[in-house]
Amino acid sequence: MWIPILLSVIFVAIITVLVIKIVLLSRAFTEIDDQVRDHMDGSDSSSFKLSTSNPKARSLANNLDAELQQLHKERIVLQDGDRRMKANVTAISHDLRTPLTAINSYVDLLSTEPDEAKRAEYLERIKDRTSELKYMTSELFKYSVSSDNSYESRLNPEDLDLQRIIEDSLLSFFGELSSRGITPSTSFPSSPVIVNCDRKTLMRIFDNIFSNVAKYATSSLSVTLSSSRVVTITNDAPSLTPVQVSKMFDKYYTVNDGKESTGLGLSIARDLVESIGGSISASVSDGFLSVEIKM
Fold first, then answer.
1. 160-295: CATH superfamily
2. Contact in structure between 191 and 227 (CB atoms under 8 Å)
3. Stated pTM of the model
4. pLDDT per residue as tens digits for the range 100-127
5. How far is CA 268 from CA 87, 161, 263, 274, in A?
């Protein structure tokens, strides 16, 4: 008599255990499903957490977690690459305007210059700037997400006369500066100051700085080069504050939103100066902004 009762109790116990296991497994798979969704939409990247101790469920969760963690890392790399690609394309697009401005300035000079030798010189510089524009356009299409080391491998350093580079860049903005009533003053050593650097990189540095001066200066600009390869560019900036100067080299920062500016020029200049082992800094005093570049 007691045997059927015992069997019934055992049967009920087995069914109960099985039901509990099924419920726990169901809960575990629900937890896995929810956490997979969170990982896929990027709202969570932490390791899987399960309320069950079932080894099969935990093994499944661990395998899924490993795959999703790898997927998360690859997504971060792709997103970072996309951001850097957009930033690089924007930076190059920004720089495309500089040779165009220079070409326009030389054309203005040509229209009023009677001296044939000077006209020939301006035409030669227009040719140089056109080549630079062609190079930058090519860079825009072939630019890829690359490390700084990769960028440095594309440089072609050569011995350059720093005074000539500064003069060439400054002359590019002659028309724009003249229209604002600004006549630059320069001070150079009696002997050439030679730097070993990539020409295009050096031109981009000074072009970006003088482009910024042409946007914001209203009455004065001075350029000083020392024999120790320190360039100091000073222009009037009566409303500029130390706080604004501290942010000048930040990407996308603009002093005046009313000016047409991407906020990239000085940031690019800083990156390029540092890429060739130099440093750049800025300070403001008595209404004048000074940018110092050490090569």
1. Histidine kinase-like ATPase, C-terminal domain (3.30.565.10)
2. yes
3. 0.55
4. 888 888 888 888 888 888 888 888 888 8
5. 11, 22, 9, 10
